[in-house]
Batch of 3 targets.
Target 1
Amino acid sequence: MTDRLDSCLVPRVLALLVSCGPGLVGAQAIRTTLLGAGTHQPVAGAFVILLDSAGREVVRTLTDENGRVRLDVRPGAYRVSVLRIGMARWSGKPLLLAAGDTITTPIEAPEIPVLLSEIAVHAERRCRVRPEEGSAAARLWEEARTALEATEWTIAHPVYRFQTRRYVRTFGPSGNRPIEDQRYLGPGNSAWPFRSLPAESLAARGFAQLDSEGAMTYYGPDLPVFLSAVFLAQHCYRVEQPKGDTADPRIGLGFEPVERGRQVDVAGVLWLDRRSSELRELLFHYTNLGGWAGRGAQGRVVFDRLPNGAWVIRRWSIRMPIPRVVTRQVNMPGVAAAAAPVDTVGIAGYREEGGLVTEVRTATGQLVATYPDEP
């Protein structure tokens, strides 16, 4: 039996429109800047969302490093909503856009901090599906979801290009030091290039799947999967804290499957910074995966905020066990003959596949951020 990873936990591109496309009547537009109401300074990396009169989202955009907002819409009545990591969501007064109107007045959004430091971890032990509004888990999910959506927007939006490096590492049975390390460049300075399976497919067939030759393929929850209605409905959430270190500044939103079905699923933790409310990393492992295949199988996704306020996945990986067939002699009860040989499957080591971003540029080639090519 062999192991392989045909599709790593890297995001499937999901476009978030920043305009309504061709066919707009006139030239209705919002060309403005988002400012903090208290500081009057531009706010970078915040979602500005346009809602219709029924409260449905029409379009959204992520402000750039100068807080600029660029939206094109049809004539109608709207309300602006601002979603910013670490701040309470805010909605402005209704506005009316007639044919040919352009709004240039700065948007000033109140800055009311979301204090994750006040969440009492011991207050919520129960794992809840779709935590109710006002609960500690709901507050954590709101902050984590904002970062996930901002990361997805950054990856899907055509203004950024990524230089990536992939690697394959082999570890011994202890799983500590790699005994083999292979690295190779990603496909040039390109848009985010990788895919996971759709949430519906993973729900039906599982996050780890055997092919006709008995090889196991492991899949991770990429951003569209994690944000999907299917995943949310099939998993529950609770607040967690780091174990052992009371000085650890993180707070976690744990998740696990609601039911233990036939398919392989995932459970894990989204770790956020208590002070900034920023999402740091996603750690997950596989559930309902018995025998050798489930021993130590796990994944990791690390998030980072760019200097201009946008979000990216800094690095990602999936670690898979490598099986080893061991033949041992077993004495059969009531059999006088020699012990019978029996094959058992153990762990020969681990194979880890992943990648990391080394450079981020705009579509025009301007350097946004560089990262060290970590081991």
Target 2
Amino acid sequence: MPEREIIAFSSEPLVGTLLGIAGIVMAIYFYFKSRQFSRLALQTHEIAVIGGRTSAFDDHLEIRFGGEIVDRVTMTRSVLWNAGNVTIEGNKIVSSDPLRFQVNSENKILKIDIILQTRSVNDINFKRVDQNILLVDFDFIDPKDGITVEITHSGTIGEIKLLGTIRGIPNILSTIGTDESFIRVMQNLPKNFEKFSLMLTAGIGIFMVII
């Protein structure tokens, strides 16, 4: 292609627009590629095993769990994982505001069962320090590492909360529901975005070579 035709072609508004868009896309790609962040994500699903939202039962009715009299029994299954791209260190948990699951003070955490964890080396563990507080501790959590825990308590649905402060993580991402596809999307989002961006960049490169 003669030089004059190349200049004329490259001066076309559509070509300039495409090149501008390509530049923006590549800038966004390299921004996300270089951006590092930590994010502790939580997804929960709850069912009321027995008992209503209030404790107004007949005087002749008692609900017992492990020998303890309780107002109700609620089961909360929580998936806790690192949705960022940087390792979360356990020593970053602030001692004055520890990471914990908590229900209202008049209710109790009755039982804790670990259902699944990605790697035992993360050393994620739970310790009940009060009747309504369950401390969460770990050595480290790499990206995509996590754990599924089932907490049985006497609170109502929606009452149990994940509280605490981890240095470097301004807030904990909380979502509701148990659709596992959400977790898969969250985990694969950076990978899928990277693949798409690489394909787009390669396409732009081929286009420029043809020009």
Target 3
Amino acid sequence: VNQPTASSISATICAGAVYNFNGTPLTTAGTYSDTLINAAGCDSIITLTLNVNQPTASSISATICAGAVYDFNGTPLTNAGTYSDTLVNAAGCDSIITLTLNVNQPTASSISATICAGAVYNFNGTPLTSAGTYSDTLVNAAGCDSIITLTLNVTPVLQSSQQASICAGNSFNFNGMMLTTAGTYRDTLQNTAGCDSLIITLTLNVNAVTNGNISASICQGQTYPFNNLQLTSTGTYRDTLVNVNGCDSILTLTLTVNPVPAKPVITRNGNDLSSSASTGNQWYLVGTGAIAGATGQVYTPNQANGGRFYVISTVNGCSSPSSDTLDFIGTGLAEQNFLNWQYFPNPASQFVNVRLELVKADQIRIDITDLSGRIVRSVYEGERTPGLLNLEVPTADLSQGMYLIRLSGKNEQRSGRLLIQR
């Protein structure tokens, strides 16, 4: 009697697969049996334990920077997206992996900064001193490049020079400093950023106040013009002017007013003519002018010629009025026609009297001229018989100064000086 046989087997498939159990397709886990014929021709019962393994699935995420490559199981990826791949798990079934790939972009930023000339700017560890554009690459929070661009400005220090002048005793305000002494000064100004922006160099000149002294003298009755003042008295006067540097120029004037000598009187003693003035005499001959060397108190005319004489006394530059004329008839002038030729007052103001005594009839002319001989007033012209001629000539319209009175006859001429003064 042959015994039937029995055997057990186990098998594993993946979900979705089919297990052929002696012609029977199996897809579900379980225990199955089948009766076959063994070698002895008896039943051979086979028991099958079938296991069905499930496929696995997983998800992963990854991040790369733009420009980088992600290796996904041999596949190079550069773009963000969702990717999947099927592998074999430990059970020999499919293992589906889903990848979410993120691509982070690099960041860029710009900054600007300003430093003072001579200062140092620390740019991520790099010391910078010159103006310009600089860049550096860092790592941002996503782990990618972060490019920083720096615009660096350097505030320059400017130089300025100026000159100024003040007068001694004054002060110059140099940015709050009151300067009184000549010299070179410097000051540094700062901008709103606290940098030195301008160095000012000042050259300061201090001009001195000048002093001047002058002395002058005038004659009594005259005036001395002193800076819009008409001075008539002896004294010391001061005035403050402005010199070429714009500073005070103190001018001190010592003025002396000298008296005008009295009008001399001529007396005759024989052939000698004497002046009442003891000093400063100058003798004149009418029609000729000053007599050279005749400066003494006594003058003796040439007895042969004679003439009409007068004298003026000058002391300290001040001249007296002309004396009255005195006729000295010399031995050679017996035929003289003009006698007692006089004009007064001298100096004159509003008028002058002219007196003439003629010995014989004559055609005469009397004029007042300036010192160059130009006639400024015709006094008289005509035929005169012997005798006395008295004329009152107005002089109020004549300017102040020295003039000549000129007397002309047919054979004789005389002239004398006339001072118009008011």
